């Protein structure tokens, strides 16, 4: 009975964490793309300010966690639904995502930035689900099935935004490869920025 309850709690935590991840990572690109009350430049400036503040706060919180084990333990318990146990002694995915979104919006056009940011909200979620349920061919904890899931869910979003199927296919493929090989770096950091950089290069050929 205890084991069953523990398993149910784990599934609940994982599901809640994933829902939060999808919501948080989709919020910025959707606001950037659908902003009826502000100009594109005003929206960009506002998001850069917001992400800068969030990054600074999260970065400071992480540093405090590393310095003070009691505070670290308190925050890990308090936010156990949002923070992975693997992040006990390293920067959280939220910190990396804020930094990556900040750099992506600052350096790239709206179309490229929104596409790359949606890769981490849609593609990364699809990769985790596909890898968990159908993953058989694995490499450093990643699976080819997960990579396929990333590509299949990222492609429609990229096509819709970039309006060129060739760029969308290549961009989604690069995003899937970046996520697949991000086993030494947090994919919340690598996927948005490196995907945006890849799409930027691809657009120069079309």
Topology:
Blueprint: H1 2-33, H2 40-67, H3 69-78, H4 93-107, H5 110-134, E1 138-139, E2 142-143, H6 144-162, H7 165-180, H8 187-203
Antiparallel strand pairs: 1-2
Helix pairs in contact: 1-2, 1-5, 2-3, 2-4, 4-5, 4-8, 5-6, 5-7, 5-8, 6-7, 7-8
Explain how this protein is built:
With 206 residues, the chain is mostly helical. It has one domain (2-203). It has 8 helices and 2 strands, in the order H-H-H-H-H-E-E-H-H-H. The chain has helices at 2-33, 40-67, 69-78, 93-107, 110-134, 144-162, 165-180, 187-203, and strands spanning 138-139, 142-143. Strands 1-2 form a two-stranded antiparallel ribbon. Strand 1 (138-139) and strand 2 (142-143) form a beta hairpin. Helix 1 packs antiparallel against helix 5 (110-134) and helix 4 (93-107) runs parallel beside helix 8 (187-203).
């Amino acid at each position: 009975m205890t084991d069953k309850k523990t398993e149910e709690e784990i599934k609940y935590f994982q599901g809640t964490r994933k829902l939060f991840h999808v919501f948080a990572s989709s919020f910025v690109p959707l606001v950037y793309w659908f902003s009826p009350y502000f100009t594109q430049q005003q929206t960009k400036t506002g998001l850069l300010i917001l992400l800068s503040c969030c990054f600074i706060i999260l970065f400071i919180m992480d540093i405090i966690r590393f310095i003070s084990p009691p505070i670290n333990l308190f925050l890990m318990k308090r936010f156990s639904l949002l923070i992975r146990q693997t992040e006990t002694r390293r920067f959280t995915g939220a910190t990396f995502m804020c930094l990556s979104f900040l750099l992506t919006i600052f350096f790239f056009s709206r179309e490229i930035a929104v596409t790359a940011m949606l890769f981490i909200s849609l593609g990364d979620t699809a990769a985790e689900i596909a890898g968990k349920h159908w993953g058989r061919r694995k490499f450093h904890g990643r699976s080819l099935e997960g990579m396929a899931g990333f590509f299949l869910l990222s492609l429609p979003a990229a096509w819709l935004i970039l309006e060129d199927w060739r760029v969308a296919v290549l961009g989604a493929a690069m995003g899937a490869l970046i996520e697949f090989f991000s086993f030494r770096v947090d994919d919340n950091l690598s996927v948005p920025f490196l995907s945006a950089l890849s799409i930027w290069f691809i657009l120069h050929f079309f």
